[in-house]
Design a protein that fits this description.
Strand content of chain A: 15-25%
Number of domains of chain A: 1
CATH topology of chain A: Alkaline Phosphatase, subunit A
CATH superfamily of chain A: Alkaline Phosphatase, subunit A
Number of strands of chain A: 18
Structural class of chain A: alpha/beta
CATH architecture of chain A: 3-Layer(aba) Sandwich
Number of helices of chain A: 13
Oligomer: homodimer
CATH class of chain A: Alpha Beta
Bound molecules: magnesium ion, zinc ion
Chain lengths: 465, 465
């Protein structure tokens, strides 16, 4: 028995916005040969605009779990239906004493992975768009990022996240520092060389660097980082306003009110730390949380905009003749997987997909826009068996902690978390993950790529003939 | 420090066979835009030959682990470099009383998954190319398979596996029965209706049905099933020889000696039950098996051919003007994952890749051949962190049982098994898995497909324009 009526793909109304025709429901059971459709989708031109959508920790397993829950096993997200798809490796390095042979780190955190696509180069855990070195506290070489290169080319840039905007993923787009924890001027204990008051002066904390990069659109959580005092005295927020004329907003209503960058770039900080996930938590337990009738509860997000709201505003503000680069992160998929929270993670995959639909609506009118949707590394959630009216040769439900929800299909789905003790933070895993794209040069995500390969693709490769 | 010298992609000598030029090393760090290359690879024609290569339980995680171990994190298997790639869903059904609403089973075993691509339809766990029903022992409707349709069209057919050839995956290609366990005439306790001595007479056990389907090339393990007496008296093997003139072989040397199907189809049974994996087991333990200097030991496979040997022979025997369908399964990836055996699973991913290279060498000369490489469902192996000289923000190694090996990169890789208690059989998981293809209509694996969609692709869709 189905849980609710399926919203027809391609017709979803989102925040008053009619979503475009780029979504094509074709599977399972599609009948036509896709060869011609795929051929027509290939465009070797360099993209004018790039929209990179990241689901932190969003691997094939949580995508499948989210699809099962939201749309049923036969459903399709917009991200499922992008024409070009591939697998992407996410390994990083470990610190080491031989600069020619840093050890490989087969399971990365969010800093080297985001640094990988931002800079085209590998680095070590916790490091933000800066090369490897002999130890965590020894800074490496700063590497230019895609966002910085777009900025230098006179294009507009945007950086949107549901985490603190100073968290590793958005940080890597537009800052350089040895440790991801150095998010604000009061968090610089292990990044002393980077303090603005250091001699010689450093680039400052992540919060400061993001505004010093004059990123046109900065939207997310992290207000507490921007309330910290800079080494010179004023808060980072006041510094951003006085030095660069940043327009500061802190609610969806205020965000709605900003309709131009004429008065300055925009800094929207909608939560003290991370923003609120779409759903309230359902936390796995050793005895098994939830059950065959459990559904996820929508959280009260107060005055916060959704990721789709932020993406919509960012695109409207960034749209210009020269082009733009926009990174959008659905950050809480990862954080709720760490917390063994199946509802939190599932809901923010849907948030990612809704943000994608906004980007697709823009792409439909601006076909010189490359859209890439992927994760940064694999994570801990496993979909496991749950018995029932079948031989169930797959064996009993396993895992250290499990949770069960009733899917759109009306059937129970069980997930397990086992990479850490129940109640502790679950760990990332090292599997390659899915990458999908549409638009010019989107064919470059097919096959098996490394996440550093996205760097050249987003900058635009020399068109093939 | 690298463990050994990398064998250059495209130049691997395999069983005396020079492997073809279809392998193209491009990543990480590829520089050219792939648009033109991908466009040239698109062919909407119906394939004349189809070679389907299955790694049982072979998901993105074990592919990544195998790549890290065999080639290093930056290496590329042949299967990595196929031009068309997508994600594939693998869910099945559960038995139920409402034929219009069977519950969804989010984690499938190998029977409904193989039945899915073989017949284009979903079914329940343990069921072989037969529809769902109210209970495990109630037979469903038999569905025609791709192999049977090729046979009916006058084409040749082959079925190769490193498991018992009567195991679920090869069984689904050419037999129909309510329970996968009914492999030989002595195993029919729960499949009584299907016994040949039943009234009315049934189709017989899986072993009998495979030969009654006159499959031209049957190669794998399972000799003990064929030694069982049929209801009529003689062994299944004697029945196959006397009724259909099957040429029986049981060693690689004997297999080498068969060079034509003129005397009859071939039945090669090289092990009493399953064949021997490439590597000896390294079994994960709660304390952590192996370590940073542990490498996998090559097993003594006695007189058994490799999967590549069997694939090579099968293709040579099947090659004909009308075309053929060949299913090749690297079965022990799954079984060694069940056993928490990282070396066994890794080695048989390499075996799958070596079989693919054989298929690619044929395809290079016969471009009207569609090659598809995929798994049947996701599995339990997770690549987890192992600390070391880094901040390792991903947290400590987790999992109920772990094992560590030294990869080709010279660095330790740790994997965890947690879907069952250590020592018990690890369980399948429900993630979508990778599918890749090359040749005519290979574009139909892109995006997100369901495994039942492979059915129409393998039969050949109406070419698009
Ligand atoms: Mg993040
Ligand atoms: Mg199998
Ligand atoms: Zn991450
Ligand atoms: Zn994380
Ligand atoms: Zn299987
Ligand atoms: Zn299995």
């Amino acid at each position: 028995m189905r849980r609710k009526t399926l919203v027809a793909a391609g017709a979803l109304a989102l925040g008053g916005l009619a979503i475009g025709s780029a979504v094509q429901a074709v599977s399972p059971g599609f009948t036509d040969d896709r060869s011609a459709t795929l051929a027509k989708a290939i465009s070797p031109e360099k993209p004018r605009n790039v929209i990179l959508l990241i689901g932190d920790g969003t691997d094939d397993s949580i995508i499948t779990a989210a699809r099962n829950y939201e749309l049923g096993a036969k459903g399709r997200f917009a991200l499922d239906e992008l024409p070009f798809t591939g697998a992407m490796t996410t390994f990083g390095l470990k610190t080491g004493t031989d600069p020619n042979d840093y050890p490989i780190n087969y399971v990365s955190d969010s800093a080297p992975t985001a640094s990988g696509w931002s800079t085209g180069k590998k680095t070590v855990d916790s490091r933000i768009s800066q090369g490897p070195s002999a130890s965590d506290t020894a800074p490496g070489t700063d590497y230019d990022t895609v966002l910085e290169k777009y900025k230098a080319a006179g294009k507009r840039t945007g950086n949107v996240s549901t985490a603190e905007i100073t968290d590793a993923t958005p940080a890597a787009a537009g800052s350089h520092i040895n440790l991801r924890e150095c998010q604000g001027p009061a968090n610089m204990a292990k990044c002393g060389y980077a303090k603005k008051s250091a001699v010689p002066a450093g680039k400052g904390s992540i919060a400061e660097q993001l505004v010093d990069n004059k990123i046109d659109v900065l939207l997310g959580g992290g207000a507490a980082r921007y309330a910290q005092a800079t080494d010179a005295g004023p808060s980072v927020l006041d510094y951003a306003k006085s030095t660069y004329s940043y327009q500061a907003v802190d609610t969806k209503t205020a965000l709605d009110g900003v309709t131009s960058l004429d008065k300055g770039p925009i800094l929207g900080l909608f939560a003290s730390a991370n923003m609120t996930p779409r759903y309230e938590p359902l936390t796995a337990t050793p005895a098994g949380a939830g059950g065959p009738t459990t559904t996820c509860k929508t959280a009260d997000r107060g005055t916060q905009p959704s990721l789709a709201d932020m993406t919509d505003k960012a695109i409207k503000l960034l749209d210009n003749d020269k082009g733009f680069f926009l990174q959008v992160e659905s950050a809480m998929v990862d954080k709720q997987e760490h917390a063994s929270d199946i509802c939190g993670a599932i809901g923010d995959v849907l948030e990612l997909d809704n943000a994608l639909k906004v980007a697709q609506a823009y792409q439909a009118k601006h076909p010189d826009t490359l859209i890439i949707v992927t994760g940064d590394h694999a994570h801990s959630t496993q979909i496991v068996g749950n018995g029932g009216t079948t031989t169930d040769a797959t064996g009993a439900t396993g895992g250290k902690a499990t949770a069960t929800v009733k899917t759109f299909d009306g059937d129970p789905m069980t997930v397990a978390y086992s990479t850490a003790a129940p109640g502790s933070s679950q760990s990332h895993t090292g599997s390659q993950i899915r990458v999908a794209a549409s638009g010019p040069q989107a064919a470059n995500v097919t096959g098996t790529i490394d996440q550093t390969d996205l760097f050249s693709t987003m900058l635009g490769r020399t068109p093939s003939k």
